[in-house]
Design goal:
It is a single chain. This protein is of the alpha+beta class. It folds into three domains: 31-135, PAS domain (Beta-Lactamase), CATH 3.30.450; 140-242, no CATH class; 255-402, Histidine kinase-like ATPase, C-terminal domain (Heat Shock Protein 90, 2-Layer Sandwich). 51% of the residues lie in helices and 21% in strands. The strands form three sheets. Strands 2-1-5-4-3 form a five-stranded antiparallel sheet. It has a five-stranded mixed sheet with strand order 7-9-10-12-11. Strands 6-8 form a two-stranded antiparallel ribbon. It starts with a helix and ends with a strand.
Length: 406
């Protein structure tokens, strides 16, 4: 057989295989699919008929496109004009994704996410597009509920601030409301990311099925990986609530106190447990200064750092355990170094130690909020800074506190 005939036969066989593969996806897809030729819908799958509640393809194709959409979209734009704009973008870019409101056969509003993909053809000189239709009614419903929740929380907090700002004892209640609002906002944010990731994984799987020719082994490897990602995202949704169990922040008045005062009180609190854990604490202070502070919050910061040292000692089974607290006077700041000999923090964790929810103690009821709250207290409440680094023996936290409020 002539080489050119072999080449032509090979090309034809490849075309037939791809056509068969596409036909299966087209028929069994969980999304609606339609084909547009020269601005007219010429074909669609059964899923699209189900979305629009039509009984037959013939009936659906005979419906005028203007009857499939309400006069105006949710953003107030004229449906006919916006449809032309969306097609123009797809024609120029080659593909385009957008949300759209449609009318079913029974004139019910349905929210759809659409992908328009331009198809170049060597055989046809006509303009051809694939359209993928995804039902997003549930997604829109969840987004609206989140918007209402956020709006309600903002209104509640604003009303509390306005009502209570001149009364000291009610300021405490307002602060708690702000904390609750912040907590719910962060939970919503934490949920939104894995939910978005799950949605993206599903969409990516569907697009790869439509647009890529994966062999069987690659296909199953890819699906397995995406399913594992989805499982991980789902687990993170479950864990988020536990991260906020011990969320709390002091809101007492600032007082001018000895810099040693919060360290002495923190030492009294943990003295017994540190003795049981055989941990020695040494506090060195060059000069006892009086500075403005929220004492309870500074105690919270010190306890959080010391508790992390204790957990690290126990986890790594360190011998001759010791913590050294050195307080020095700088030009504008009080410099506090809290260092231990616990062999330091893993390098990959150093940049994450102050992030919210980050913890290496999940199995020991770690919340991931201790050092995050410590940073907020030092930076936002006292205008200072807190950093951490490893030295030759272990971890060393450095805190800078202003000597005077400016």
């Amino acid at each position: 057989m002539e080489p050119y005939l072999i080449f032509i036969i090979t090309i034809l066989l490849m075309f037939i295989v791809k056509l068969s593969f596409f036909k299966k996806i087209y028929t069994h897809s969980t999304n609606g699919i339609s084909i547009i030729l020269n601005g007219k819908v010429i074909d669609c799958n059964d899923k699209l008929l189900q979305l629009f509640e039509y009984d037959s393809e013939k009936e659906f194709l005979q419906v005028h496109p203007l009857k499939l959409s309400p006069p105006f979209q949710s953003d107030g734009s004229f449906s006919f004009q916006k449809a032309n704009d969306m097609m123009l973008i797809a024609r120029e870019k080659g593909n385009h994704r957008f949300d759209w409101q449609f009318l079913t056969k029974n004139e019910q509003i349905k929210n759809i996410e659409i992908d328009i993909i331009k198809v170049d053809s060597f055989f046809l000189r006509k303009e051809k597009f694939f359209m993928i239709w995804r039902d997003i009614d549930k997604r829109i419903e969840v987004e609206e509920k989140l918007k209402q929740l956020n709006a309600n929380l903002e209104n509640i907090i604003e009303e509390k601030v306005e009502k209570n700002k001149k009364q000291e004892h009610i300021l405490l209640q307002q602060s708690k409301q702000a904390q609750i609002g912040e907590m719910l906002s962060m939970i919503a944010h934490q949920w939104r990311q894995p939910l978005g990731a799950i949605s993206s994984s599903i969409i990516d799987i569907q697009m790869k099925l439509m647009l890529r020719n994966l062999d069987t082994e690659e296909f199953f490897e890819y699906i397995a990986k995406e399913l594992q990602n989805i499982e991980n995202y789902t687990q993170s949704l479950t864990n988020t609530i536990d991260d906020f169990r011990d969320f709390y922040r002091y809101t007492k008045k600032k007082e001018c106190l000895s810099i040693l005062s919060p360290f002495r009180k923190a030492y009294q609190i943990i003295d017994k447990t540190f003795q049981e854990a055989q941990i020695k604490i040494n506090i060195l202070c060059e000069k006892d200064l009086i500075i403005p502070m929220f004492e309870g919050e500074i105690i919270q910061v010190v306890l959080s750092i010391l508790q992390n040292s204790k957990d690290n000692f126990i986890q790594k089974n360190i011998l001759n355990r010791k913590v050294e607290i050195i307080i020095k006077e700088g030009e504008e700041n009080i410099v506090i170094n809290i260092c231990d000999n616990g062999k330091g923090i893993n390098k990959e964790n150093l940049d994450s130690i102050f992030l919210p929810y980050f913890t290496t103690k999940e199995k020991k009821n770690g919340t991931g909020l201790g050092l995050y709250m410590a940073q907020k207290i030092i930076q936002e409440r006292h205008g200072g800074s807190i950093t951490v680094e490893n030295n030759f023996e272990g971890a060393c936290f450095r805190i800078l506190l202003k000597k005077e409020d400016k």
